[in-house]
């Protein structure tokens, strides 16, 4: 018997059940106008509790069986290059660039043409953003912090925190992560940001309101999978028990999803770990998996991802269907591709992939994977802040009638 009894009806789910009564609930999909926020915050929904009844479209449940397992394990490998492999790939590409022309050199050069360095093309990026409102979206692990063996030790540096803080003073800024929102907030410790945890299924506004934010302090904006919380907790406990026999496996409860980390698991045991996860999930057809870097993500089968979270946050800020917005999304993981694709489909802003080796992506630009100080990402953020200050300084000079100094 499958355990579907803990899931509410697929039709007419009241999303507001998990939201405090004092918090306005914004509708999604958004009204297609720049004034959507005013309409959404003004009591949209009309229900007794201010909730919005939504019709959820579930994705097809995950199919299991012998034929499905090998592709699953292969996906684990494909989405989880080790630092050693990534470094080797980068070294090989660099060596090829110095050596005689060859397939490796041509492939790397072609990839860099399609996804040039965001630092090298910084002037092109800011030129494209002129006259538009930049909105920043940042992944956490592997983007603001280095990838580490222990996910509880993925701390960002003080320098990176200062850079993100400076960015938030210039542009509306959101952290979009697979981690639970509370965990990301505890890592970042910046009150003026929007946070979209659990792959965008738990979106909160800033604690400290600034000129770049429009949400009330501590406001819960959106939780599209709140009815799955009992199931997620149940699966977390089951996976914790099932995987304890696999050395190095770590199960993390990210509130609206469960992460099974296998960074410290011997690759020879990946297939066994996949079988363990499979044996638990076959009882939960309302859950699906996705693959990240050395992690298996278990989440609800609703059509919601980081791309949907990006669109929701743009709507929250009043840019649902505006031509004068320039979203910039920086991320390193396969789950960030949903956001990259949204930007590409919208024809607005750009995605920046953080990676040390060529791989298929919907991002327009690239940055090298962060080392200890996350140098490339931090450099890009600081250059963006410097450019904004320069533009504001020139505008102020023109306003008071002082000619700019060249």
UniProtKB/TrEMBL annotation:
<dbReference type="GO" id="GO:0004805">
    <property type="term" value="F:trehalose-phosphatase activity"/>
</dbReference>
<dbReference type="InterPro" id="IPR044651">
    <property type="entry name" value="OTSB-like"/>
</dbReference>
<dbReference type="GO" id="GO:0005992">
    <property type="term" value="P:trehalose biosynthetic process"/>
</dbReference>
<comment type="pathway">
    <text>Glycan biosynthesis; trehalose biosynthesis.</text>
</comment>
<dbReference type="InterPro" id="IPR006379">
    <property type="entry name" value="HAD-SF_hydro_IIB"/>
</dbReference>
<dbReference type="InterPro" id="IPR023214">
    <property type="entry name" value="HAD_sf"/>
</dbReference>
<comment type="similarity">
    <text>Belongs to the trehalose phosphatase family.</text>
</comment>
<dbReference type="InterPro" id="IPR036412">
    <property type="entry name" value="HAD-like_sf"/>
</dbReference>
<dbReference type="Pfam" id="PF02358">
    <property type="entry name" value="Trehalose_PPase"/>
</dbReference>
<protein>
    <recommendedName>
        <fullName>Trehalose 6-phosphate phosphatase</fullName>
        <ecNumber>3.1.3.12</ecNumber>
    </recommendedName>
</protein>
<comment type="function">
    <text>Removes the phosphate from trehalose 6-phosphate to produce free trehalose.</text>
</comment>
<keyword id="KW-0378">Hydrolase</keyword>
<dbReference type="InterPro" id="IPR003337">
    <property type="entry name" value="Trehalose_PPase"/>
</dbReference>
């Amino acid at each position: 018997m499958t355990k579907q009894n803990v899931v509410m009806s697929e039709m007419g789910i009241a999303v507001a059940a998990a939201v405090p009564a004092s918090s306005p609930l914004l509708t999604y999909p958004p009204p297609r106008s720049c004034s959507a926020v005013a309409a959404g915050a003004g009591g949209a929904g009309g229900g007794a509790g201010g909730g919005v009844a939504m019709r959820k479209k579930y994705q097809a449940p995950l199919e299991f069986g012998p034929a499905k397992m090998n592709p699953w394990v292969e996906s684990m490998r494909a989405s989880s290059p080790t630092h050693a492999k990534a470094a080797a790939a980068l070294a090989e590409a660099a060596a090829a660039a110095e050596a005689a022309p060859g397939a490796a050199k041509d492939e790397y050069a072609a990839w860099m043409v399609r996804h040039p360095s965001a630092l090298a093309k910084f002037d092109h990026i800011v030129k494209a953003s002129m006259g538009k409102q930049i909105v920043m979206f940042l992944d956490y692990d592997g983007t603001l912090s280095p990838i580490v063996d222990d996910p509880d030790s993925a701390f960002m540096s003080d320098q990176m925190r200062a850079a993100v803080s400076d960015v938030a003073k210039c542009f509306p800024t959101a952290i979009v992560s697979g981690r639970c929102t509370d965990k990301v907030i505890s890592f970042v410790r910046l009150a003026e940001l929007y946070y979209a945890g659990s792959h965008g299924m738990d979106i909160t506004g800033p604690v400290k309101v600034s000129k770049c934010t429009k949400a009330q302090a501590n406001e819960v904006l959106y939780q599209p999978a709140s009815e799955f919380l009992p199931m997620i907790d149940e699966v977390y406990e089951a996976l914790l028990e099932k995987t304890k026999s696999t050395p190095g496996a770590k199960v993390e409860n990210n509130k609206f999803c469960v992460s099974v980390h296998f960074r410290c698991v011997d690759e020879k045991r990946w297939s066994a770990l996949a079988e363990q996860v499979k044996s638990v999930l076959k009882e939960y057809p309302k859950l699906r998996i996705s693959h990240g870097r050395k992690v298996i993500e278990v989440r609800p089968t609703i059509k919601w991802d980081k791309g949907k979270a990006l669109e929701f946050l743009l709507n929250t800020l009043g840019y649902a269907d505006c031509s004068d917005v320039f979203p910039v999304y920086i991320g390193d993981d396969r789950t960030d591709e949903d956001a990259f694709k949204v930007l590409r489909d919208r024809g607005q802003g750009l995605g920046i992939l953080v990676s040390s080796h060529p791989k298929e992506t919907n991002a327009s630009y690239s940055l090298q994977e962060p080392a200890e100080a996350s140098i490339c990402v931090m450099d890009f953020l600081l250059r963006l802040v410097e450019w904004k200050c320069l533009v504001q300084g020139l505008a102020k000079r023109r306003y008071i009638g002082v000619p700019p100094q060249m």
